[in-house]
Amino acid sequence: MSTPSGLGFGAAGIGNLFTEVTEEQAYEAVDAAWRCGIRYYDTAPHYGLGLSERRLGAALREHPREEYTVSTKVGRRLEPSTGGGDDMANGFAVPATHRRVWDFTEDGIRRTLDASLERLGLDRVDIVYLHDPDDHAEHAFREGYPALEKLRSEGVVGAIGAGMNQTDMLTRFVRDTDVDVVLCAGRYTLLDQSALDELLPAAVSRGTSVVIGGAFNSGLLADPKPGATYNYTRAPGELLDRALRMKEIAARHGIGLRAAALAFCAAHPAVSSVLVGARSAHEVQDAARQFATPVPDPFWQELRDTGLLVIEEKR
Predict the structure, then answer these.
(1) What is the DSSP letter of 306?
(2) Domain hosting residue 77, numbered range
């Protein structure tokens, strides 16, 4: 399996996460990612009720299939809905044409993947993740994971794993199954290193790749200011103060906080890729510049000296 490397493109934004994005803006974002050298693209049926997959597939169609990696997710099956309204309750500015049904059965996973392939316009995807099985652990391990193993053995997918916003269950996947990769969102950042407790050491021990999402903790580390979000809600004052202090230190060392946030995630030996969500060409280009910015050692030393960054990894 060709594992993702470097900076990856998170496609929730082009699925109208929180706000509408035009077809042209979505295409330009993916095009900019390609021009910046990004070759890993992550999506899911959940993102805009399939809109993200359709837009991503259309934008990638002009590029050689063997030159990029695509991951999507299973566990939320989309069923047509006639209720009307929009999907903002789930965070997406799209019409509520479908409803999500939790389904980790083999039949449900195969149907979900088939629908994703149709939307993407592909005959295969490189990675399939079980998507947020937090409240469905036993179904995910007893039914979902074996279904993914079958798909991998049949050559339908190249690699399998799980993607979540927590570390405990991801650690269980790494230790108790034969997943190739896990996607950990928001739990290994400058403000939250809980993935160091068990997940990252386990991944190193097992040789499992880790993709990091949520490097900016949903906004706070991208632009710390009053009203900034952390884990998709208003950031607590204590965390805002920490982020602002980090930003000041970064400025003294001639870098931006975004560059430091991305460099921190990418530096761990278990991490194969860092996903950054983007909804415009400008955001993609900025992410690529920040990712390529060298972060001087004295910056990290000052963070440690001031107690803003305390790294304690269990082994």
Answers:
(1) T
(2) 6-305
Q: Both ends of the chain: CA-CA distance in Å?
A: 27
Mean pLDDT by 10 residues, the chain (315 residues): 74 97 98 98 98 98 97 98 94 97 98 98 97 97 98 96 98 98 98 97 98 96 96 94 98 98 97 97 97 97 95 63
> How many other C-beta atoms are found inside a 10 Å radius of the C-beta of residue 40?
25
For residue 1, the model assigns a pLDDT of: 36
Neighbouring C-beta atoms of residue 208, cutoff 10 Å: 23
Residue 119, SS3? helix
- CATH number of the domain that 37 lies in? 3.20.20.100
Which listed residue (47, 68, 145, 188) is catalytic?
47
Q: Is residue 46 part of a domain?
A: yes
Q: What token pair was written down for 61?
A: 């169609």
Angle ∠(114,118,124) on CA atoms, nearest 5: 65
Number of domains composing the chain: 1
Is 56 inside a domain boundary? yes
Residue 47 annotated to the active site:
yes
Quote the pTM value: 0.96
